[in-house]
Design a protein that fits this description.
Helix content: under 10%
Number of helices: 2
Radius of gyration: 21 Å
Largest sheet: 8 strands, mixed
Strand content: over 45%
Shape: elongated
Structural class: mainly beta
Distance between the termini: 43 Å
Oligomer: single chain
Number of strands: 16
């Protein structure tokens, strides 16, 4: 069985200018994106163990990568709220955003602007990805061109994020309980559901004359195995298989929320002269 901690490497390079001259960008981004699956503490010889005593052997875990998004603003943003204690109207805060009571994922900068009675202003650069890699095998994904050649104006790089579409899985599930809730040979499991979310991380790097113009971003997206804990597979068996499409609306919403919570984004920034 291949390692479930393999990493998908996605790399796009922007040709830099040699020196800063009139008309040259204040900043130019070089981004490296890695996407992988973290099975730490859950992967055993027979498969991935869930909190409900199921064992899942995944053959495929595909994530739809829609775009990388780089948000900038003219001014730096200092948070007036503690992400561990979100303001009214928001719940869990992580990865540079909070979960709003109405289901939205809202960046810290947008929340701060809302608390100040305004709206976040700035620039958003989008790198279209349009790929659906299998997180389990580390396949390579080709990227399109970066908007505005990934050049940044003077100001602050506030957040870096990945926009996600759907997540699809396929495999086989077994039961560890006695008596077993599933046949001894297990049952196939498949499912596709819409995440429709953007994970982001606050950066706050300055783009200006006193900083090197080259900005290298190392972005790592991790899906962790506990997202499977939300599923009671035996309750979804029909005609000898499990299809996640059989989840009720309430169950589906809970599963998607659990999956979002188990997606983590880490971004590191390095500076260099162009």
């Amino acid at each position: 069985m291949p390692s479930r901690s393999s990493w998908l490497l996605v790399l796009f390079m922007i040709a830099p200018a040699c020196t800063f001259t009139d008309g040259s960008p204040w900043g130019q981004v070089d981004m490296n994106v890695q996407v992988g699956f973290d099975d730490a503490g859950r992967q055993k010889s027979d498969g991935l163990h869930t909190s409900k005593d199921y064992v899942v052997v995944l053959d495929r875990l595909d994530v739809d990568l829609v775009a990388a998004v780089i948000n900038t603003s003219a001014d730096s943003v200092t948070l007036s709220f503690d992400p561990a204690s979100p303001p009214d109207g928001y719940g869990l805060c992580h990865n540079g955003h909070c979960h709003a009571d109405d289901g939205r994922l809202v960046d810290y900068a947008d929340i701060e602007a809302e608390l100040a009675g305004g709206a976040a202003t700035g620039q958003a650069l989008v790198q279209v990805i349009d790929a659906t890699p299998n997180l389990l095998d580390g396949s390579t994904v080709a990227l399109g061109e970066c908007a505005s050649n990934c050049e940044l104006g003077r100001g602050y790089l506030q957040t870096v994020g990945l926009q996600l579409g759907t997540l699809s899985l396929a495999g086989r599930v077994f039961d560890k309980r006695v008596p077993s809730r599933l046949p001894d040979e297990g049952v196939p499991v498949t499912g596709t559901f819409a995440l429709d979310t953007t994970l982001s991380e606050a950066i706050g790097a300055e783009v200006g004359r006193d900083e090197p113009a080259g900005i290298d971003l190392d972005v790592r997206l991790t899906a962790a195995a506990p997202f499977l804990d939300a599923l009671d597979f035996a309750a979804l068996v029909e005609d000898g298989s499990v299809a996640l499409e059989r989840l009720s609306a309430e169950e589906r919403a809970a599963f998607i929320e659990k999956t979002r919570q188990e997606l983590n984004l880490d971004v590191t920034v390095e500076r260099r002269e162009l």
